[in-house]
From TrEMBL:
Keywords: Acyltransferase, Cytoplasm, Hydrolase, Iron, Metal-binding, Protease, Transferase, tRNA processing. SUPFAM superfamilies: Actin-like ATPase domain. This is tRNA N6-adenosine threonylcarbamoyltransferase. Binds 1 Fe(2+) ion per subunit. It is found in: Cytoplasm. The gene is tsaD.
């Protein structure tokens, strides 16, 4: 089954054609990041406008690269939640139009479920059940993936997402948006014990995260230094901050895996591109003889191939949408 997939939840307009949930026939991503960089973060109104401008060309390009016409695909899948509402609406309405014009079934896909599905594209042998650390710009969850469309959140952030904390800390360090990747790169050059940052824990919820205190700690450190006219060693600051975030992520993920007797661990979302997170999980899983699956770095960020992958399993589970499909800014991954 060939699915034409569309993604527009944040600042990438993307389309892809995916066969049977696992085989990518084409994948096109038009990023708006250069424009949002000017403002230090995503400007929702600009994002919606750029999606509206880009979507026709991006979808056509995905069909062209797959050497298919609209009449040769079997369904349209679209990210409908969660995300920026105006941005999501562009993809949802375009997908509804295509579905109506071509008489194709419409499949609604949850953005975080699709991040998890990026792993199915890269790892043909991977099947649920497994435990997944979903870490993106807007979410940080530990999810028990019982089946392709049956999920339960067992840990979540109480405040900022890991990606958001990385981006805000990076911004305070003077790095361009989105800062996570720059902070990660610069951290490689620094000493991770140069600054003492907290490892916040949530009382009575051992799988939950809290990153806002950590973010405030680094921002305060930078402000105090600048008020005194002291220049801080950015690489050391980045390395110490990155280690604190990754320690929290790995510690809770490990505890959950042990408590749930789960020996297959998976990561998903933009922050799973973080080099320290990857190497720490590789070491942990090597030591415990657990299986570890992570998306290749090019599939960690937003793209539509992952939407086509999850769309296939949503389809198999009987999940269809009508022309009354709406976009939702927030929606649980549990459905
Ligand atoms: O999953 P994603 O592409 O979009 C959302 O659904 O939010 O995640 C984007 C987030 C951003 O916060 C970005 O800074 C972060 O992922 N990110 C990273 C790295 N690469 C991307 N954070 C830390 N280290 C990285 N290498
Ligand atoms: Zn995402």
């Amino acid at each position: 089954m060939r699915i034409l997939a569309i993604e527009s939840s944040c600042d990438e307009t993307a389309a892809a054609v995916v066969e049977d949930g696992r085989n990518v026939l084409s994948s096109v991503v038009a990023s708006q990041v250069e424009e949002h960089k000017l403002y230090g973060g995503v400007v929702p109104e600009i994002a919606s406008r750029r999606h509206a401008e880009a979507i026709v060309g991006v979808v056509q390009e995905a069909l062209d690269q797959a050497r298919l016409t609209l009449g040769e695909v079997d369904a349209v899948a679209v990210t409908h939640a969660p995300g920026l509402i105006g941005a999501l609406l562009v993809g949802v309405n375009f997908a509804k139009g295509l579905s109506m014009a071509a008489g194709l079934p419409l499949i609604p896909v949850h953005h975080l479920r699709s991040h998890i599905a990026a792993n199915y594209l890269a790892h043909p042998e991977l099947k649920p059940p497994f435990l997944c650390l979903v870490v993106s710009g807007g979410h940080s969850h530990i999810v028990e993936v019982a089946d392709y469309t049956k999920m339960r959140i067992i840990g979540r952030t109480r405040d900022d997402a890991a990606g958001e904390a990385f981006d805000k800390a990076a911004r305070a360090m003077g790095m361009p948006y989105p800062g996570g990747i720059h902070l990660d790169r610069i951290a490689e050059e620094g000493g991770d014990s140069a600054f003492a940052f907290p490892r916040p824990r949530v009382d009575g919820a051992e799988y939950d995260f809290s990153f806002s205190g950590l973010k405030t700690a680094v921002i305060n450190q930078i402000h105090n230094a600048s008020q005194k006219g002291v220049e801080l060693p950015v690489a050391d600051l980045a390395a110490s901050f990155r280690k604190a975030v990754v320690d929290c992520l790995v510690q809770n993920f490990q505890k959950a895996a042990e408590d749930f007797h789960c020996t297959t661990l998976v990561t998903a979302g933009g922050v799973s591109a973080n080099s320290l997170l990857r190497s720490r999980l590789e070491a942990l899983c090597g030591e415990k003889s657990w299986k570890l699956y992570m998306p290749p770095k090019e599939l960690c960020g937003d793209n539509a191939a992952m939407v086509g992958a999850q769309g296939f399993y949503e389809w198999k589970a009987g999940n269809r949408a009508g022309l009354n499909l709406n976009a939702c800014a927030t929606m649980s991954i549990e459905g």
